[in-house]
Design brief:
This protein is mostly helical. It has six helices and no strands. It binds zinc ion (ZN).
């Protein structure tokens, strides 16, 4: 099964460990890029068990890039980011993960 770029409206095939295709990755702010890799666990794409913190930073990155791609910011935050944050934020207890996520989501 092929793995596709997670960006909004993108279907480019990318290696399983990558979140986005190269053009979408280049649109991702550096701080977010660093957080994606900081919260990535090697092998998560194989066992399909990313951490909840990774799922939140993934949704954050997808939201940022979707807004740059022209999706209405309110719609992007409301439909992409917020449902994931709401679902997982209270389940993250790892202090390192929380500290990393708070770099972009200070109210977590
Ligand atoms: Zn893409």
């Amino acid at each position: 099964m092929s793995h596709v770029c997670h960006a909004w409206n993108c279907a480019k095939v990318v290696a399983p460990e990558f979140l986005f295709c190269p053009p979408h990755w280049r649109m991702t702010p550096r701080v977010t890029q660093r957080l994606v890799w900081a919260l990535y666990r090697p092998g998560q794409e194989i066992d399909k068990r990313p951490t909840r913190a990774y799922l939140i930073i993934q949704a954050y990155a997808v939201t940022e890039v979707a807004i740059k791609d022209g999706l209405d910011p309110e719609k992007a935050v409301g439909e992409i980011l917020w449902p994931v944050v709401e679902r997982y934020q209270s389940t993250i207890t790892d202090a390192r993960e929380l500290a990393l996520l708070r770099k972009v989501l200070p109210r977590l």
